[in-house]
């Protein structure tokens, strides 16, 4: 297969509610959507999960646009590609910029599956008909607000609640959540808000029977996380610190975590995600699929990836309506009783809604 034309679109979509983490809050989501056409006129879709400011990692939608326009699209255009696994090899001369790379790699995977007439899940070797998902809840103004939100999500059927924490919004908050909801699957995500010197503070979370604490320490650390994990019983899950299979191996060998959150964008694509999944399966490390408040396109890729069998914990891939008044795919991603039914149409399995895409597009550029 060959990519004969690639279109980049800069979209701006407004979340239903502001999303707050230990870094701050935002409601307008600006991102890049990538449309790739092959020599037979088929279309594959990819989404960049980079935000408009570099708070989660160093990438932004503007650095992604630059990388795609100046390096990644030229490296792939009109090149014969037998299998999507080749994309990461072609990109090997370009360091890092994983979210930029995964934007176009995801579109190549979608095209590959569509050309074969199979679902993206099948192309990856996944075999679940439905996937179990949870929900990630940002920092709220009051604990009362948080408890009310959780009650609503429990009623909607979500089985696992992830609560964002930061210093000043942590132990007492989790205690109240646990008191009110003694039986839910519950976890906390700190987005790197703590230091190793907070060890005694973080130990207090051990009494709440949390599934895990996600990324408590620095975004580039695996050494201090290993020290922390030895001192607390709550399993540590790494998010920001894991960019590759190699990072995964090193974190496992050091004992830095017991669980890994796989985000396709953070690790540079679906091929690398699969490698991490396979390594973790071999070493009995449960994985789950993280989220980046994606539109339906990125969400669809997450659904397909989660069909791999070592995704044994509910991920952050909630339904479209948790984020958007109107998503850009047909049908939207729907959650019933905590499950998403994996679509059975070829590729990502959801249709891009061109009217909606146009409505949210600020800038568009075609490369051929
Ligand atoms: O609902 C989602 O898509 C996941 C929400 C979430 O937790 C998150 C959202 C944006 C950036 C980082 C994270 C995270 O997992 O740390
Ligand atoms: Mg996280």
Automatic annotation (TrEMBL):
<feature type="binding site">
    <location>
        <position position="189"/>
    </location>
    <ligand>
        <name>Mg(2+)</name>
    </ligand>
</feature>
<feature type="binding site">
    <location>
        <position position="239"/>
    </location>
    <ligand>
        <name>Mg(2+)</name>
    </ligand>
</feature>
<comment type="function">
    <text>Converts 2-succinyl-6-hydroxy-2,4-cyclohexadiene-1-carboxylate (SHCHC) to 2-succinylbenzoate (OSB).</text>
</comment>
<feature type="active site" description="Proton acceptor">
    <location>
        <position position="263"/>
    </location>
</feature>
<dbReference type="Pfam" id="PF02746">
    <property type="entry name" value="MR_MLE_N"/>
</dbReference>
<comment type="similarity">
    <text>Belongs to the mandelate racemase/muconate lactonizing enzyme family. MenC type 2 subfamily.</text>
</comment>
<keyword id="KW-0479">Metal-binding</keyword>
<feature type="domain" description="Mandelate racemase/muconate lactonizing enzyme C-terminal">
    <location>
        <begin position="143"/>
        <end position="235"/>
    </location>
</feature>
<comment type="pathway">
    <text>Quinol/quinone metabolism; 1,4-dihydroxy-2-naphthoate biosynthesis; 1,4-dihydroxy-2-naphthoate from chorismate: step 4/7.</text>
</comment>
<dbReference type="InterPro" id="IPR036849">
    <property type="entry name" value="Enolase-like_C_sf"/>
</dbReference>
<feature type="active site" description="Proton donor">
    <location>
        <position position="164"/>
    </location>
</feature>
<dbReference type="InterPro" id="IPR029017">
    <property type="entry name" value="Enolase-like_N"/>
</dbReference>
<protein>
    <recommendedName>
        <fullName>o-succinylbenzoate synthase</fullName>
        <ecNumber>4.2.1.113</ecNumber>
    </recommendedName>
</protein>
<comment type="pathway">
    <text>Quinol/quinone metabolism; menaquinone biosynthesis.</text>
</comment>
<keyword id="KW-0456">Lyase</keyword>
<dbReference type="InterPro" id="IPR047585">
    <property type="entry name" value="MenC"/>
</dbReference>
<dbReference type="GO" id="GO:0043748">
    <property type="term" value="F:O-succinylbenzoate synthase activity"/>
</dbReference>
<keyword id="KW-0474">Menaquinone biosynthesis</keyword>
<dbReference type="Pfam" id="PF13378">
    <property type="entry name" value="MR_MLE_C"/>
</dbReference>
<dbReference type="InterPro" id="IPR010197">
    <property type="entry name" value="OSBS/NAAAR"/>
</dbReference>
<dbReference type="InterPro" id="IPR013341">
    <property type="entry name" value="Mandelate_racemase_N_dom"/>
</dbReference>
<keyword id="KW-0460">Magnesium</keyword>
<dbReference type="InterPro" id="IPR029065">
    <property type="entry name" value="Enolase_C-like"/>
</dbReference>
<dbReference type="InterPro" id="IPR013342">
    <property type="entry name" value="Mandelate_racemase_C"/>
</dbReference>
<feature type="binding site">
    <location>
        <position position="214"/>
    </location>
    <ligand>
        <name>Mg(2+)</name>
    </ligand>
</feature>
């Amino acid at each position: 297969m060959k990519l004969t034309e690639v279109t980049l679109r800069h979209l701006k979509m407004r979340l239903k509610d502001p999303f707050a983490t230990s870094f701050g809050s935002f409601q307008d989501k600006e991102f890049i959507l990538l449309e790739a056409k092959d020599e037979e006129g088929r279309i594959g879709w990819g989404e960049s999960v980079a935000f408009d400011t570099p708070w989660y990692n160093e990438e932004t939608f503007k650095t992604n646009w630059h990388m795609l326009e100046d390096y990644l699209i030229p490296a792939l255009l009109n090149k014969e590609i037998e299998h999507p696994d080749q994309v990461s090899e072609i990109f090997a001369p370009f360091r890092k910029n994983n979210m930029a790379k995964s934007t176009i790699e995801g579109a190549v995977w979608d095209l590959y599956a569509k050309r074969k007439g199979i679902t993206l899940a099948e192309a990856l070797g996944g075999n679940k008909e439905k996937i179990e998902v949870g929900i990630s809840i940002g920092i709220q103004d009051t604990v009362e607000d948080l408890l009310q939100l959780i009650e609503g999500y429990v009623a909607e059927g979500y089985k696992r609640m992830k609560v964002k924490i930061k210093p000043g919004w942590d132990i007492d908050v989790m205690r109240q959540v646990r008191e009110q909801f003694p039986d839910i699957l519950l976890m906390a995500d700190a987005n790197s808000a703590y230091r190793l010197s907070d060890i005694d503070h973080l130990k207090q979370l051990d009494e709440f029977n949390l599934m895990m604490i996600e990324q408590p320490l620095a975004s580039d650390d695996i050494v201090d996380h290993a020290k922390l994990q030895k001192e607390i019983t709550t399993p540590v899950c790494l998010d920001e610190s894991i960019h590759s299979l190699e990072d995964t191996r090193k974190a496992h060998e050091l004992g830095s975590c017991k669980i890994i959150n796989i985000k396709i964008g953070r690790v540079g694509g679906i091929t690398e995600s699969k490698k991490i999944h396979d390594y973790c399966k071999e070493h009995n490390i449960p994985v789950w699929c993280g989220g980046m408040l994606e539109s339906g396109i990125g969400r669809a890729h997450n659904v397909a990836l989660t069909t791999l069998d070592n995704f044994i914990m509910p991920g952050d891939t909630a339904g479209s309506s948790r984020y958007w008044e109107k998503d850009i795919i047909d049908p939207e991603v729907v959650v019933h009783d905590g499950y998403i039914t994996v679509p059975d149409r070829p590729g990502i399995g959801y249709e891009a809604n061109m009217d909606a895409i146009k409505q949210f597009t600020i800038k568009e550029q075609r490369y051929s």
